[in-house]
From TrEMBL:
Record-level GO cellular component terms: chromatin; nucleus
Ranges of compositional bias, category Polar residues: 1-13
Organism: Cerrena zonata
Name used for this protein in its record: N-acetyltransferase ECO1
Stored InterPro entries: AcTrfase_ESCO_Znf_dom, ESCO_Acetyltransf_dom
One example GO MF annotation: protein-lysine-acetyltransferase activity
């Protein structure tokens, strides 16, 4: 009895074997492993490269932080400002510029300025005219009075500018404008100060600036029983502390005195009155002026200036606005 054979494969035709044997079955030398090695950093779980942390976003606040400020105060026992009793100049102690200015200014206020050989050499060129010579003062010293135009230049012009700066600083007055200087003349009192080395040494100890003006106001003296409150409103107060008032009505006046100065060491010797007399007699050529008749006027005078104009002007001097 024949036994039945059972096929366990499909009826698909069998695949023919390849013509050449596979590479793994051929006895050939093994190929070298050409696979690249992985870098060390691929095997490590950490690296030395610092990681950048992401900045946390700051909360935007409208309020800004305000710093607390501290103010420092210096408690000084003495004030740094000092007023000189000799020249009445207030300066800052400890400041080199202020102290240097005070020394030079105080020396000029007390003793005047030098009039040397250089100024004397330019006298003819600058048109300097000697009005009086050998003028004897109350203390026996002698001097002379010279005059020239206020717009002079050169070394004499420089000396005049220094003198005017000293006068303006002493009187707390503004500088004279160029227009005023063009219509003015300068009168100087030169005091003889001979020394062992020079017999012609002179100093400027007095100065008067005379200006051409057209009108001024008459001085009015209220009666002694009237107080300042009872003074008529039509009067203009010039210096109520000295009871000095003027009438606002302008009166014809040919000459004005905007500046008057005498060094402190040479006051009360008659220098101011000598200068004013020379100015009133020679300011207008061939026409002497009489202060008692109101032909001479002053700008707003100080206390010392008020006594001079009252004594020299004999009550007729007027006041004008500079």
């Amino acid at each position: 009895m024949s036994s039945l054979v059972r096929r366990t494969y499909s009826t698909r035709p069998a695949r023919q074997p390849p013509s050449s044997p596979p590479s793994d079955l051929v006895s050939s030398p093994p190929r070298p492993n050409l696979k690249r090695k992985r870098p060390l950093t691929d095997h490590l779980s950490f690296t030395n490269t610092p990681t950048t942390k992401k900045a946390k976003p700051q909360k935007s606040t409208n309020k800004t932080k305000q710093k607390t400020l501290t103010q420092l105060h210096f408690a000084l026992e003495t004030s740094v400002l000092k007023t000189c009793p000799l020249c009445d100049l207030t300066f800052t102690q400890g400041a080199p510029d202020d102290e240097s200015l005070h020394r030079s200014h105080c020396l000029r206020v007390q003793k005047g300025l030098e009039w040397g050989k250089e100024e004397e050499k330019e006298s003819v060129k600058a048109g300097v005219e000697e009005l009086c010579s050998d003028v004897r003062l109350k203390n026996g010293s002698k001097g002379r009075i010279i005059s020239f135009r206020a717009e002079v230049s050169g070394r004499i012009g420089t000396k005049l500018q220094t003198l005017l700066d000293t006068i303006n600083l002493t009187l707390s007055s503004p500088p004279l404008s160029q227009r005023v200087l063009q219509a003015s003349k300068v009168y100087l009192f030169l005091l003889h100060c001979p020394t062992a080395t020079s017999s012609r040494r002179e100093k400027i100890v007095g100065c008067v600036i005379a200006q051409r003006i057209t009108s001024a106001m008459a001085i009015v003296h209220p009666s002694s029983d009237e107080t300042v409150k009872d003074t008529p409103t039509s009067l203009i107060p010039v210096d109520p502390s000295t009871n000095l008032y003027v009438c606002p009505t302008p009166l014809p006046t040919p000459m004005g005195i905007p500046r008057l100065f005498v060094s402190s060491s040479h006051r009360r010797l008659g220098i101011a009155s000598r200068l004013l007399t020379s100015a009133s007699q020679t300011f207008i050529l061939g026409c002497p002026l009489d202060p008692s008749k109101g032909e001479v006027a002053f700008t707003q005078p100080t206390g010392a200036g008020k006594s001079v104009l009252e004594k020299w002007g004999k009550g007729g001097v007027r006041i004008y606005e500079e």
